[in-house]
Amino acid sequence: MAANNMKMNVFMGNLEKINKTEVKMGKLSEKTKSIVKKEMDYWKIPGCAISVLKDGKLYDSMGFGYRNMEGNLPVTADTQFGIASISKSMTSALIAVLADKGILSYDEPVTTYAPKLIMYDPKAKNMTLRDMLSHKTGFGTHDALWPGDKSREELAESMKFIKPCTDFRGEAIYSNVIYALVGYVAECAVSETWDDLMQKYIFDPLYMHRTNCSVNIMKKDINFAVPYRYRNGRLNPLNIWNLDMAGPAASVNSTANDMAKWLKMHIDGGKTQYGSMLIKPETFKEMHSVQSVFSESLGKDGEFYECNNYAMGWRTGYYKGRSFHKHTGKIEGYSSIQAFLPEAGIGAAILINLHSPSVSFMYGVLYTLLDEMLGEKYEDWAGKFHGDELPTEETYRDCDANYFKEEQVPGTYPSLPLNEYAGTYYDKGYGTININYENNVLYMQYRDMNIPLKHYHHDVFRADDVLEDVFLISLPLTFNLKSGAAESVSVRFEEMVPDIVFNKDNSI
């Protein structure tokens, strides 16, 4: 116990040192900067970069804390962070540029450009880029498909085998997979990679010279933020996820200064910083117009200005009576938020190298920044997100999620000896899952997972501690028997996704 207390004291001392480290002091008020540093201390944020625009111009940008705690390397406004799902807004802008060039259309069936992209649901045969960009395909989450080593073309070819979560053009369901395929459609239409298209049509025209699409590029840079996750009483550095397959949904890396250039283009109605038109006014308006509505809201008691409406790569709503566009990003070890108020000429980006908790920090700081730019009366946004107690160890522990729908039946046993469940199982959409038998234990090997299985009841086993976003999940695996042998295994990867049935393939 004493050793643990000593470790925690060292940890808190490091945090105090971190949050006294501010690389650039600019025009933001001392009060706002003090709030940022106090909130970093409160939420144990290792590093943070911020940029703010006012009257359509860069008002201030700065770094706080460390990009690399082990090396005592500070964050600057030019430090690269993974921006995760903010990438979707950039992919949407690419589609807008290609639409202006007459290469793509929002309302043409995507099979016109990508004939291999055929959906499971026959109703989706006329799926368009508008459907995909506004999350109206019905496909849903299926996040167990990524990250992985499939190419985007292989992902597209697998879609005809994967059941959707809801009806085509019915309920809007946020989908990383579908946004990955938006990039694939662009690739098919132009015969260039999404990465090259982003560089040519978005990053270069906006002079975003420290923005890229791959972790392999970022890791070669001398100024990038190491990702961290808070677990077991300390901050742990993480391996950076390779998101190349799902790149158009989540793989962009950027800086506070580059994000300011990106947001300025949106505040200026589609113009570059030198006045040339990147996106035509009518297309720009279409891109930011409401296309769908999400049922969920992160707003607390209706006072936190959550945007339920979704345009194309942007959530939209109102902040204190002003048009408000924003998007968040979260991937292993990184969190981010971007927002702009077009009529007010105000924008802000916040990038941090912590996975979770981060939402409360980002919104508390964002609203503080917006209020200062708007000249609004000070509100204690940070305090509103704190709750009654300081964060505890429990707060920072990964949440547990259990996807079992049926009550456990005690006193039951597997129908077969454990070794007879072992084998290679295959699904045309999800690929291969291996059930391995070692030392009287079964293991589930899927993607980069290799997780021991525990017997639950009958021929149902559980895979515990499956890491997905902020959750440690318990997954049910049900073996289906025929003629006294395991014929298939059904896996419930997500609550809203139909169980995936992998058939045993003795030929593999």
Report a brief summary of the structure.
The protein is an alpha+beta fold and 508 residues long.
Top keywords for this entry?
508 residues, Beta-lactamase, 2 domains, alpha+beta, single chain, globular, 26% helix, Lipocalin
Task: Describe it.
Residues 1-25 have low confidence and may be disordered. The strands form four sheets. This protein has a nine-stranded antiparallel beta sheet with strand order 3-2-1-13-12-11-10-9-8, with helices on both faces. The chain has helices at 2-18, 30-43, 87-100, 129-133, 152-158, 176-190, 194-203, 215-218, 247-250, 256-267, 281-287, 359-374, 381-384, 393-396; strands spanning 47-54, 57-68, 73-74, 81-82, 228-231, 234-237, 253-254, 292-293, 309-310, 315-319, 322-331, 334-341, 346-352, 399-402, 423-427, 431-438, 441-446, 449-457, 460-468, 471-482, 485-491, 500-504. The protein folds into two domains: 28-397, 3-Layer(aba) Sandwich (Beta-lactamase), CATH 3.40.710.10; 399-504, Lipocalin (Beta Barrel). The N and C termini lie far apart (51 Å). Strand 19 (460-468) and strand 20 (471-482) form a beta hairpin. It has 508 residues and is α+β, with helices and mostly antiparallel strands. The protein contains 14 helices and 22 strands. Helix 2 runs antiparallel to helix 12 and helix 5 (152-158) crosses helix 6.
